[in-house]
Write a structure and sequence with these properties.
Elements: H1 11-15, H2 21-38, H3 41-70, H4 81-86, H5 89-97, H6 105-116, E1 121-127, E2 132-137, H7 146-163, E3 169-173, E4 183-184, E5 202-203
Parallel strand pairs: 2-3, 3-5
Antiparallel strand pairs: 1-2, 3-4
Helix pairs in contact: 2-3, 5-7, 6-7
Length: 204
């Protein structure tokens, strides 16, 4: 399983070491100063880039939360404002990353399949021990060609990376109407992303 699938910290642990923006900034500067003292310019540059990437990532997440909560329809969404946040890929990925997401794995897998868009897949099972998700073709509206299947696969991988990063691999079974083999090997996940956040599940 990708290291990105592990949570950063538990809510209880985070609550015991809450710091404000000034304290966090001071900690970052202290770390950068220690790297400066080593004389390793590449290490310093790498650390500064990491800080920028993290700032961009969390800044985008906070901006999305504000936008969703400020939307006129936010209060009219079934389940309240929280439901709108949980349905958003970026916000959901941040909540999962910090072990703050209130939904279980099965519910988030369903969200990922809904987010994939074409409803071509249904869940056949999930193995907790191997973190393997088994999907079954639901027929969908695609033409069945390789290009359509690849696009659908990519959409599923991207959505799982956001909503259920604990899924390490995906196996796709043939549908009941299919004359093909019982297990389809549909490729591998895309290369690891450079931005922080959950990595895509590997499909096999």
């Amino acid at each position: 399983m990708s290291a990105a699938a592990h949570t950063v910290s538990s809510p209880a642990a985070a609550a015991t070491r809450v710091m404000n923006a000034e304290q966090a900034g001071r900690r970052v500067e202290e770390v950068l100063d220690r790297l400066d003292a080593t004389g390793d310019e590449s290490a310093r540059a790498g650390a500064e880039e990491l800080v920028r990437v993290l700032m961009d990532f969390y800044g985008a997440g906070l901006a999305r939360i504000v936008r969703l909560l400020d939307a006129p329809a936010a209060g009219k969404v079934p389940g309240g404002p929280l439901a709108g946040l949980l349905a958003d890929e970026l916000v959901s990925s941040l909540l999962v990353l910090h072990d703050l997401h209130p939904e279980d794995t099965a519910t988030r897998i369903d969200r990922a399949l809904d987010a994939a868009g074409d409803h071509s897949w249904e869940v056949a099972g999930f193995d907790d021990s191997s973190a393997t998700l088994r999907l079954r073709s639901a027929g969908g509206s695609g033409c069945g060609c390789a290009g359509t299947a690849a696009a659908s696969q990519q959409a599923v991988e991207d959505a799982l990376a956001c909503f259920a990063p604990e899924v390490a691999s995906v196996e796709v079974e043939a549908g009941a109407a299919s004359r093909g083999p019982a297990l389809l090997q549909i490729g591998t996940a895309p290369p690891s992303r450079t931005a922080p956040g959950p990595a895509p599940a590997k499909t096999r």
